Amino acid sequence: MRIPLKASTRRGLSVIRRLARAALGATQARWRRSIRVRVVTTTLVVSAIVVAVLGVFLMQQITNALLEAKERAALLQLDDGVGIAQGRLATGPSDPETLNDVVTTLARRSGTAGLYEVILIDDRDPGINGFSSNAIKPDSVPARLRLQVERAPASNPYRTYGRLSYDDGTSTAGLIVGAKVNAYQIYYLFPLTQERQSLVVVQRTLFGVGAALMLLLAAIASLVTRQVVIPVRLAAQSAERLAAGRLEERMKVRGEDDLARLATSFNDMAANLQEKIVQLEELSKVQRQFVSDVSHELRTPLTTIRIAADVLYEAREDFDPLTSRSAELLQSQLERFEGLLADLLEISRYDAGAATLDAESIDVRELVLRAVGDTEDLAERKGSKIVQQLPGEATMAEVDRRRVERILRNLLVNAVEHGEGKDIVVSVAADRDAVAIAVRDHGCGLRPGEAHMVFDRFWRADPARARTTGGTGLGLSISKEDARLHGGWLQAWGEPDQGCQFRLSLPRVAGAELRGSPLPLVPPEVELRRAPYAELKLEADA
Amino acid sequence: MRRGLALVTVVLCAVAGCASVPSGSQVIGGRITNHQQPIDDPYVRVIPVGPGRDWDPGKIITAFQAASGSFDGPNGDHKVAREYLACGGCWQPGISTVVYDRMEQTSVQIGGAHASVTVEVDQLGRIGSDGQYIADSHRFKATYQLRQDAQKQWRISWLPQELLLSRNDVNRAFRTLDLYFFSPDPQVKALVPNPVFIPMVNRTWLSQQLVKQLLGGPTTWLRGAGVRTDFPGGTQLRRLDISGGVATVDLSRQARSGDLRNMSIQLMWTLRQLREVDQLKLEIEGKPVQVPGVGGTVQSASVWSGYNPDGQGDAPRGWVRTADGRLARLDSSVPQVLLPKLRVSQPAISYDARQVAAVSKSGDTVTVTDMTTGATRVVLHAKLAGGRFCKPSWDSRGNVWAVESNSHGSRLWEITSGTTKIAVDGWTLAPYPVRALRISRDGTRAAAIVQMGQVSQVQLGRVDRAPTGGLQAEGFIAINSDLSAALDLTWRDADHLAVIGATDSNPSPLLYDVPVGGGTIQPMVGPGGDMKAVAAYPGAPLLVAQHVSSPQPLDNVCWLSDKYGEWKCYDRTSAPAYPG
Ligand SMILES: Nc1ncnc2c1ncn2[C@@H]1O[C@H](COP(=O)(O)OP(=O)(O)O)[C@@H](O)[C@H]1O
Ligand SMILES: [Mg+2]
User: Fold this and answer.
1) Is the pLDDT of residue B37 over 70?
2) What distance in Å separates the CA atoms of residue A133 and residue A112, rounded to the nearest whole number?
3) Which bound ligand lies closest to the C-alpha atom of A416?
4) Euclidean distance between the first and final Cα of chain A, in Å?
5) What class does CATH assign to A89-197?
6) Does residue B366 sit in the same domain as residue B508?
7) CB contact under 8 A, B40 and A107
8) pLDDT tier for residue A520 given thresholds of 50, 70 and 90
């Protein structure tokens, strides 16, 4: 049966449960993360088990020793008493007064501390069963002991443990020894109060010492792990910093132990790494310089060659067909060469870090319109139509006009070239922080993994075809650098036979950080088709 | 490596040291237990058993007698002995206890399912329901009726209401303790002990019963002496707890109207007889009360030591009469004669040691001598025909008591302020010759040796004022039926007498310690000669006058040196006296 709980109680319970769960979670997390917590806990548990086992064993030993000593003393006392009683009772059956005297004498010998009580059993007189000292109840002598003593030969002592009960209703554990003297039985009853007290003291001491020992061990474990863990933690920190690119990071080397060796080798590794990276950097710098120099050096002769080629090209009608064809070829390949050289120069400017942003506030739609205007001819030739999806109002952003136009032109040209004559969609969207321009075509698309490679220098999906389309393979690389200079993103999506979409996202304010894009990278219709419900729906439509 | 080995050795040695007991140490004093256990002074009880199967009426009665010697059950109401009865409630043995010496069954008559058993005992005395013992030796006859119950077992259907206990049963099952009351004379600061017999049911019961009896007031006998108690009527004991030497007495609200000081004095003196009590804490209705003149709520026994029934201060010197009749003080090994001109016989010294009362040589006059001036006055002449005075007795107010007796009777006189003589009217011993009379220090009781026919008995009487205003000495009771020929007596302290006397079983005179409450008399080792007179004072050595016949006939007074436990004697002296 469930007892209905009040809402407040239930709420309280759930809070408690949540807190407990949080605490448990935190503990688990600490357990997983901290070696020290693990080591200390394990030490505590193990030492607790050891201390408990040891304590129980010790306690048993001490109890046994105490009781053994008590038994020995008790038997000696009884021997004494039996001797006295025998002396007094030797002369045949005795009257109650003698027995009374004997018990009094024996009880007196118990001393002022009340070491023991005496019971003398005499079952020959009617109405009286013997004598007992002080407040002890006669039924404190267990029947099993009485039976033994009754049956046994005279003055053979027997002992047992039992409960001593007193007149005032109290009772304590006790040792009972007894022997037969003539026709009488004498019992000595020793309360074990003193022994109990001693044992309690011993037990308390053991508890205290055990707890102290456990805590001490835990403290030692904590200290030792701390000594080990702190250098390891430092090493981890150093490694993290190194990974973050701070190559000058080094560990402090203290002493000559294993940890010091770890630090030394870590430092060696860092030093080697740094050296290699610096070398590589130098090397690439040299290469870039070389490319830049070569490009510059090539420009002057190329200008001369260009002038000469122009002359030849103008006069091609005067040449024989073969020569005229050569002049044409020279002209077109020179154009390609010029383009390549321009691109190379642009790239090397980036590599040298000399590219600067010339930002101004412009309506992005205007840039798009212009770029579309530039490529419309080419698109017509290829049989593609460029569809524009522009927002109604001006979408202003602080951008470098030349660079963004270059990006858009490049994207549009690529789309036309790879668009296989199908429609190309250019869409623009903006939100509070960013503007995005997406160029979508329905051409051959990209194979999986190529979406990243398109931005690599000189990368082409089909190197053989490239010659004919006349691209340099540097267009997207430069566009990417342009986008990055704005603090924006240029990303590609493509699937085989689904076409491509390139998305340019730019912050509205130059230099601001970009957090998201107003347009999706994957075209919505593709995304929809991917969702399982959408597929079902399509089938139903069919 | 070597250092490690040394360390291991050191640790091993330390561990081995832990496991050993010390073989030498400083000398340490003190008890291991910090307060006295209530067990000390053990007591012994009989283990009673119920009736056996098919016992005959005679055996049933014998067994019942034996079992009724045990005060078992929660209130000492003889639980086991009642198993012999056909009716549980028809026996209320609280009324009185007959103490007997010997018992015999004189007749057993069985008729069908009924039987009657007659028992005869030599009665020694009776303990009243208030605990007062009165010696009264005669033959006592008791008849028991029995009938068979459904299982054909004999059970007692009618029996005497008294509890019959042998002398040994009483010694074992009873304790004699004093209740303390104030002397009727407000000038006297000392307490009057009232000895009572209380059955030893168990230790807590005993102490509770003791306080209950104290609250209940003095025994009927002592009540006649006019002693005062400061507990308002109806005061009940709510709780008595004794632990760690402190007795906590919780009284009911009636106690509020009583004098806290006086109640504390009575309680303290009564309870301190129990060994386990050192201190007292008085509560009324569960709230501790602050007693005026005591710091804190816990009072120690020493606060009220001024009310000692035995008086305070150092024990005084003893006095003796030298061979030439002079009075000498026992200052050193040779008695010192202080008044060379004074001749006395039977001297009695006043409590302030300034005056001495004596009987003339012929025995028919009493004189009082001022010891500072040496002036002697004859204060009393015998009035009876052939009347002789025995040794006078002082009380603590400075009055002299002297009894004059001839062979037919006696008269008691009191001499107030050393001059005025008053014949005490209410003198119940008038028909008997009196051989000795000693007034207790508190002036409320008189111990006397009374000649009753052949027997000279030790009796205790009260000294008080009759309703008419006259002094009276009455209510004399025998306190012991063993001593049949007493010669002299003196007060050892407020509740013990020292008596020279003979018993039936031992006709030569011995020195006995006699508790006035009626407890067992104890013979004491005497100096060895033919004892004549005895003098005692609390805290001072006992003085005994004796006559030795060898090596030559001689009278001397001997004192018991407590240092060596042997008697030392002053040759050629007699008539020993302490103040009183
Ligand atoms: N819209 C697109 N559809 C399919 N492939 C494309 C598209 N745009 C670029 N590519 C691939 O990326 C390669 C690199 O393009 P790019 O850097 O502009 O160089 P180029 O156009 O000079 O070849 C192209 O050769 C082509 O294979
Ligand atoms: Mg291109």
Assistant:
1) no
2) 13
3) 1
4) 56
5) alpha beta
6) yes
7) no
8) very high
